[in-house]
């Protein structure tokens, strides 16, 4: 559990947010703030809307035409639902890492250089620097520095996931969204990613969905508990895990269901 935070600014301020897949409402009146430069964990049983919620934070949900959204999704004071912010710019600022590592079937170098190239960086020296810095930031550099031109698919699952984090870091984001980033990994790789997240917390605002409550307790500053599309409660991780306000949260964290 992280030490008590000094009150920071909020990066997201979500108000009365609702989301439907067709006629099925998956998120109901979600109101919550997500703090800057801290780790916010989202927990809750399968199907409660965690992935749906985290995917709205960079408007990935806009890719699905059956989705309808209402309410406010304020990112740094700008409502993403009504703003004309360029989606490519948003996704550069708000990076995402998925459950299953999904490197491109290209070299390690090209995986990391991909985003910066798309955003117009052509200079080889500059790209080399970004690749090195990003791989260092993802705790992967020493393991791959002598094989940057080898295919990323040859890396272990844990290394692939750190590569995906390096790829996200390469566009110099402010926010990192992670949807169950360790659920496909072995315990050792999981520990590495947790250490990595703890180090990234200094520089980035991180939102992580996790099935693993011990993980939420270990690495997050704040925790939000979702249940059946609703936010039951959110508070400091210490509070949620030791003395939650709601019985349902207590039942969930003590393993009575989920
Ligand atoms: N692409 C989709 N189309 C229709 N319904 C979906 C889709 N994705 C998720 N849902 C529904 O939305 C609800 C929340 O799902 P999800 O966000 O994946 O939950 P979680 O990540 O907490 O397991 C579920 O009822 C699920 O069936
Ligand atoms: Mg999910």
What report would you give on this structure?
This protein has 258 residues and is an alpha/beta fold. The chain has helices spanning 50-56, 87-93, 108-118, 124-137, 141-144, 157-169, 187-200, 213-219, 237-242, 247-253, and strands at 10-21, 24-35, 39-43, 67-75, 78-79, 94-97, 175-179, 205-209, 222-227, 230-236. It has one domain: 3-Layer(aba) Sandwich (Rossmann fold). The protein contains ten helices and ten strands. Strand 1 and strand 2 form a beta hairpin. The two termini are 22 Å apart. The chain binds adenosine-5'-diphosphate and magnesium ion. Magnesium ion is lined by residues 50-51. One of its GO terms (molecular function) is ATP binding. Keywords: ATP-binding, Nucleotide-binding, Transport. InterPro entries: AAA+_ATPase (IPR003593), ABC_transporter-like_ATP-bd (IPR003439), ABC_transporter-like_CS (IPR017871), P-loop_NTPase (IPR027417), PstB-like (IPR005670).
What is the element layout, followed by pairings?
Layout: E1 10-21, E2 24-35, E3 39-43, H1 50-56, E4 67-75, E5 78-79, H2 87-93, E6 94-97, H3 108-118, H4 124-137, H5 141-144, H6 157-169, E7 175-179, H7 187-200, E8 205-209, H8 213-219, E9 222-227, E10 230-236, H9 237-242, H10 247-253
Parallel strand pairs: 3-8, 3-9, 6-7, 7-8
Antiparallel strand pairs: 1-2, 1-4, 4-5, 9-10
Helix pairs in contact: 3-4, 3-6, 4-6, 6-7
Bound molecules: adenosine-5'-diphosphate and magnesium ion (MG).
Number of helices: 10
The span between the termini is 22 Å
Average pLDDT, all residues = 94
The CATH superfamily turns out to be P-loop containing nucleotide triphosphate hydrolases
- Tell me the number of strands: 10
Portion of residues in helices?
25-40%
Main sheet properties:
6 strands, mixed
Shape: globular
Bound small molecules, which ones? adenosine-5'-diphosphate, magnesium ion
**What would CATH call the architecture?**
3-Layer(aba) Sandwich
Give the strand content: 25-35%
Query: Over all CA atoms, what is the radius of gyration?
Result: 18 Å
> How would you write the strand order of the largest sheet?
6-7-8-3-9-10
CATH class: Alpha Beta
Low-confidence stretches: none
